[in-house]
C-alpha cells in the first residue's frame, strides 16, 4: 500500500499537493506468503516524465526528501507488515512521479538480486493558495 498525504494511491490517481508543504509518504509492505521474506532495501526515486520516453531523475533542485529515500527492512514475517514513513518537499510546480522499488538484499543466494517495482505514483505540485 502507498499513501501520499494520507490518501491511498494507485496508478490511476493523481495526488495534488502544494509547493513548500511537506507531503507525508507511507509505503507498507505486507507479507502474504507462508515464509518470512527479506532482507530488502526500499528506494523511492522521484522523476518527471516528458511523455516522449524520457524520464528525468535529476530533480535535486525540485524535490527534497525529509529523511532518507532508502529504507532497509531486515525481514517481514508471514501476515505481518513493514512500513516506511517519510516526507517529500516540492520546491517547484509540476507533475512528478515516484518510482518505488524493493530490492532483495540477500547475498547468500546464488540467484541474481531481484527488484519488485510498484506502480508509479503521480503527484501534481501546485502553487500555494494565498
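Q: What amino acid sequence fits the structure above?
A:
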Amino acid at each position: 500500500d502507498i499513501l501520499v498525504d494520507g490518501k491511498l494511491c494507485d496508478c490511476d490517481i493523481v495526488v495534488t499537493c502544494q509547493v513548500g508543504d511537506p507531503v507525508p509518504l507511507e509505503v507498507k509492505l505486507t507479507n502474504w506468503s507462508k515464509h518470512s521474506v527479506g532482507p530488502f532495501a526500499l528506494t523511492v526515486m522521484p522523476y518527471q516524465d516528458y511523455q516522449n520516453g524520457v524520464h528525468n531523475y535529476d530533480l535535486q533542485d525540485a524535490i527534497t526528501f525529509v529523511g532518507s529515500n532508502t529504507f532497509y527492512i531486515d525481514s517481514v514475517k508471514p501476515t505481518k507488515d513493514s512500513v516506511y514513513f517519510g516526507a517529500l518537499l516540492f520546491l517547484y510546480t509540476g507533475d512528478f512521479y515516484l518510482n518505488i522499488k524493493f530490492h532483495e538484499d540477500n547475498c547468500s543466494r546464488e540467484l541474481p538480486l531481484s527488484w519488485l517495482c510498484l506502480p508509479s505514483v503521480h503527484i501534481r505540485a501546485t502553487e500555494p493558495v494565498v
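Q: And what stands out in the fold?
A: The chain has one domain: 2-126.
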